[in-house]
Design goal:
The structure is a homohexamer of 340-residue chains.
Chain A: H1 9-12, E1 18-25, H2 33-49, E2 54-56, H3 80-92, H4 99-111, E3 114-123, E4 126-134, E5 140-145, E6 167-170, E7 173-177, H5 186-194, E8 199-204, H6 209-222, E9 225-230, E10 232-234, E11 258-261, E12 264-267, E13 273-278, E14 283-290, H7 293-298, E15 313-317, E16 325-327, H8 331-339
Parallel strand pairs in A: 1-2, 2-3, 7-8, 8-9
Antiparallel strand pairs in A: 1-14, 3-4, 4-5, 6-7, 9-12, 10-11, 12-13
Helix pairs in contact in A: 2-4
């Protein structure tokens, strides 16, 4: 993974390159993946026309983050409406690769941007919360599957494995992603740091104030730019459903009540907030990233470099894919099949 | 094997597709393979005219399941009548490919159905209990050879290997088969699950009540439709032979005594019995399969997806063909020869 | 693990040994672990006085199975009542080893029975759904932690690893356990079969009718006795809580409404139901197990013996403990600490 | 396997060593393994007192060769008497290692002979037809499990794998075994030849005249001494059972009718019959083997040496044990368990 | 190390225990260790009289944090004044164990508090930045040496090793420490989490605003109480010296200028700021810790429990002491010493 | 090679086909190849007029088997007479293809028989001991060159390679050959078995009694008809030569002494001797082969089918022609030639 020669101008000469980056703080069009893709297109075009070279979307933008859904779940209890809800949710998810991925690759190419897109991926009947990466050349670079879902997500999403922890070495810096509370996993972050991440994308569904502290801490800890993208959703963006639980908004289920407040933010390697957080509306958050800041920050603290202590603390990352069944002959073909 | 693009409507959009499927619960015409093919034709035509898109026949429908035969066998004892009985049984078996296979392909094509046919295959002088697969386009898709025969079957049939464990990705769902007590092999079933089986065909000769429990369990375990097809045979369907052992029918050897009671059944992924079991007569068992049930079922349990534990439990399936002798040069040709 | 010499009378001479076994179909005393232990004591004494040598309790008998609880969980939403509910549930769980475990060992010893007990184990702040094993000599033999929780259980319980998959070779047969839907995991079952399980305990919370099919199938597939133990609980056994979801009982929240209907059952290796299922009351389910049935069943089917096909299908079980952090020096002590 | 330094006088200097060898042509005491061991002891003592250094027993001497048994088997039919018959047969089989193996090792040591003993081994509930090897030092050397049972044996015995194909390099020559119709398997014989077998033991249950041709052919083909040991059994040696099929003796079921006629024989590497065949009575067959004959024979034909053609014909022997389930951690212990 | 039985009330019953804790935000008396100890005594007495059970001092409180010192250092240049400055600094440091350590143990005992004290330790002529731990029973529990100093600290302090990473299991919770930018080391924090830390002490010299984000992030990440203690120092607290470099205060070198602004803070496991930060004065920061918050927080996130992913990410902590010279004959003694 | 569709009546319907076959037990006319061909013609006509469809000649019938010749050879010694003797022997050998081959093809066609002829083939100045195959249609089908000559044959004949191991699928069964002690090579025989040989021709020069045992063993092992053809020669059939060594006949060098005693024999797949052995005279040995015997025999033993164990024992046959010099530009042509 982690592609490309490391002799890019940025890494080599380090004359201060400025890269414009944009976060799209917007809501999924629920139960309508084609419309969601259209919405993505609109924002990518707008960001690119502003000169952005990197566009980052929130977690689960494609497929949707089912905030407040319960899928009829309770311990030891099943429920037909919940099953049906899942079938609909499964239907909105996408295959990777697949036609939607091709469309996104085309969008990245046409608009000449790196694109990081949160999506719900389906592999058979198990869903994964995935970040997809695309290049300005219109290529699908690869994906990261969230390793560990949070609370009720565990009932609807599977767990990723170590085979999809990419960091791509691009001309605008080394690019990777941690999704939502993966940002709370110190060992996962360290794996990204060890791959040299410079443009640390954090597609998330956490719009809390505490989240801002974590983002700022990570920028400093990792010595990298942090780009946190969260959906901004109103009550009316969601389908109508009696099973919802909007804890904090229970009293106010009006159409314009805010269900996901965003808080997308861009922070520099030294902990300077460059843009956002925006807690108030759908829209673009844009900043110019001075890539020279990375080196400046690392003089004092380089988490996997001079400030590591490998004789005492060493992390092992198992990147082997984990599959319950392996077909020994015709391996590549068999693997493709077992993934359908 | 396991063919076709994974972008079929069923897997993609998952608007609830309904597929009509039929099991043929009928007896072989013993020692008369052409007549058996004629009988197959009659039922395929009838099922297709009812709108079925999938027709499944029992184990060994072609060639016959020699229930109660002993082939003169006892430990360490040989017997000329038994040898001769085997010669006749061998004569009723078919080559794959061969003229009977061509005829079945033609029948599937003319009637526009997927066809799963149990047959006794001969490869040299070793017989195999095989399931044959055909497409509505009139193609022979391939075969599955039973891996492990049961008790006395082991004296007349060989063992299949890992090279014939197909699951076909078709527009009506992913199609494969487990024959008779292969259905009791948890590792074999898991191999099928890992290939994504949705239409799990179980040609069998087991007409017991316990079999019903296994079928229901498999539907739930695999999250798939189970179509179990068993022959319904009367005493008079069998050739006359003094060596038979019809344990449960010993007192009643009249012509109309039931020798194989059928019990063919169709079950949904959530364990709902959709059609059958029929323990009383020859005939068709038909049900409409709502393919959306698969996703509904997988919300709670996905045996090779979110509910697997591959870091602890991993199955390896060796799909290499196993041959006692391999001819290195002119491989394909040599293989053909060694198979004659 | 999996202890003891293999020269026990049972395995050796196989003169038909009869073993009496009892399932305790009873409800946890919620939020009161000492009272739950007292209740366990009462039933163990009763079973032993009836001559039972093996007593099996349901899943989560100690600590409780929080049926219908939601812990305030929904996707992406948090809730203070739910957090507090978890704190209480955590308080009812037990350390292993710990004082409750010692008490259970003493009970097994005093009553001269093998005891299999479902319990909620706490390891730090992560809970595990565990089966505990005790010998008539008053020893705690070890434990099995459920590998994969089901739906909302995943939000409150962690996942076990391969280091706790014991099968104990005892004078009354080889003893192990699969908890609830682990019984649907074909690879896990196969691991138990490979260790020679003969007394297959299935502590569960699944009281459905489909469960009965799975139990019968497993008895036949594994060629072992299956002892499925499920709690029988009324509405009034549960603490009062507004967040419950008792899907099927929504209309009838009276105190005597059945919330968990039991269905505990004992089945022989040939699929004969020996006792139960009881869907109507709390109580003991007892049967005499003729251990000679195992050999009789295996003549036709031995799932990891003559009916396996290891050249094609081979399962690997990784029994290494999985820990996020390993302390290299003074290993045992460090491990103890990290487990506190 | 194939143990011991190859610097024994026999292999090295080849001054013509004479070794006395004895075959025990006798019947199992059916359903009484302790009595069978006593009978073995009597013959071993007798052979040793005659100066024999090698004693070879027939196939299945311990546990018994159930000639004529049908275990109630017919294709697709089950039978309770047959199951019970199997349970008894299973009870007569022995664990390897185990107390009976220890007793045999002691017998070999006390009588200062190499001992090759046919036995029915039980591993869980699957039986194997096994040859056991013991040294004059009173050690159990190891075993060979029959790879492929014949006809109805396949319903009661499992298949061995490549991990038990030993040839032991002893001071009296290289010692190995092929059981019954394994002697018809040219690839298996070649594996033994390639390990240098000189004392080719053929415990068998085939007492036919054609068998004599095969033994003579093998002696010449392999350039080795062949020692074929077959039971001599009368009707009265067998338990009474209505299910027997003694084809050729059907008319004459008297107590003194011969059921297995023996034909044990010892042949030199050049095809000279040194002792036997005895088709008439229980007893010892003894010959003096001039080990120098091996070299004399190989001048003209050395099947895996100068007369092989490895650029055209090469055999691969897979000696890996085949297990359906492998436990990765604590490997040796786990393997022991899974073998119980 | 990491002592005490795990059967404390807190872990067991979890009735909500409240513990009062105090941070001492105060300055070293530079170049006067006895006076510094007196100052420590004063604050410990005050905190204890307020009911505190835990008192935490800043990094290097004993020995002093030489903020702004340059020790005459520049690349490739030496300087006699700098050497002399180091001699003075070395003189203020303490031996561990030693008389100052005994005095501190006595203070903890008399005031019945757990005490965590930042100190400069001397081991020969190498200095270490160390945290010392004391119990209410008047015992010195042990120490943690900072693993990796920051920038110019590396010229005056050595690096700790893995043998001093204690977490003490106490009746008021599990207690450990990370010093200054060790708090930025994700692998070090994870080692503490794995030992179950609940009272995470962070003696520091970082008084920045970004530090607050890191503390809040750690509380959430670790699910633990964070107690960050930083000195509050004015210009006049420091000895007079021409080589100082007070970057941000260059214009204002008056006596009352703030040189270290404190910012000590106490945060709950769910990210709630319980006391502080105080950026304005020397003094005590006190809060009541509701230990039940730990369980409430872990429901959603348990960094080394249910939210770890050990099959992918595994950290190894080498706790062996690292010594340049090991005397082989005294191994056990050497290990004991490194633990003191 | 090994031609023809597999849809022949014999393999298909298996109504019991009877085929008459004849072995020609006769001597070469030494040093007179045209006369030898005339003699061949006489016997072929006779066999065909008796209804034979298959005629098999002995090893080296054309060119002669130089029994007792020494070609003046001794270790390290050369001899002009021997050279000259070889020149004469080379002159009697034939090219393949060539005029003698055409003549033989014509004979087969005219007499409507399959013909297997032993011949000495010359390829440049290296001779090969070859079996030639001809069809009733008058075609030369191909050849088999003996892989490994025996003792002194190695000084006058070369070694064949894997490119000439044909088995022809003919309407009267699958036809192939093993020459003389190739019949002792278990791997070579297995290659023939794997190609499905049913009519196993064994042209030989071995007239010993032990040979009969090998032939009978092979019939059983291979489940095929064995047709062993050996010359019957008197002293007077040989040219006069002082260098002869007729070991066993040294005392009796009279003209009528038997030098090669024949022993030609035909054996069925179940080991029944159908005709011969004739040890007394030149002449035809004829039998009717009931091809149904093959299936009857395979019920119990199918050496490369159900009785093989390919997961343990697998043979590789390298069929590439072995040539010391390969001309790259003419690859296809070279291969074609080697097959003629």
């Amino acid at each position: 993974m982690s592609t490309v020669e490391n002799t890019t101008p940025f890494n080599g000469v380090a004359s201060s390159t400025i890269v414009r980056a944009t976060i799209v703080q917007a809501s999924t069009v629920y139960n309508d993946t084609p419309a969601t893709l259209e919405k993505a297109k609109k924002y990518i075009v707008e960001a690119a026309s502003n000169g952005s070279k990197l566009v980052v979307f929130p977690e689960a933008f494609i497929g949707g983050y089912p905030r407040g859904f319960r899928f009829g779940l309770a311990v030891g209890v099943f429920n037909e409406e919940g099953r049906d809800e899942f079938r609909k949710y499964h239907a909105s998810a996408i295959h990777v690769p697949g036609p939607e991925v091709e469309k996104l690759a085309e969008l990245a190419g046409k608009n000449n941007v790196y694109l990081v897109m949160g999506a719900i991926e389906k592999d058979g009947y198990t869903l994964y919360c995935t970040a997809l990466f695309f290049s300005p050349q219109g290529q699908f670079l690869g994906k990261h599957r969230k390793l560990m879902p949070t609370t009720l997500e565990r009932c609807i999403w599977g767990q990723g494995d170590g085979s999809t922890i990419p960091v791509y070495d691009t001309p605008i810096g080394k690019l990777g992603a941690a999704i939502c509370w993966e940002n709370r996993m110190p060992l996962y972050r360290t794996a990204l740091y060890a791959k040299g991440i410079e443009l640390y994308c954090a597609p998330t569904a956490d719009g809390s104030k505490e989240w801002q502290s974590s983002m700022l801490h990570i920028a400093i800890e990792g010595g990298c730019f942090v780009l946190s993208a969260c959906q901004f959703c109103l009550r009316k963006d969601f389908p109508d459903h009696p099973d919802y639980l909007f804890t904090d908004w229970d009293d106010n289920k009006e159409h314009d009540a805010i269900v996901s407040q965003g808080g997308s933010v861009i922070i520099s390697p030294m902990g300077q907030v460059l843009a956002g957080p925006n807690f108030e509306s759908e829209g673009l958050i844009t900043a110019d990233l001075d890539l020279g800041e990375v080196a400046r920050a690392k003089l004092y603290f380089d988490v996997v470099g001079h400030y590591s202590k490998p004789d005492v603390l060493s992390l092992t990352v198992n990147e082997h894919p984990k599959k319950p069944v392996t077909f020994v002959s015709k391996v590549e073909k068999a693997e493709d099949e077992s993934n359908k």
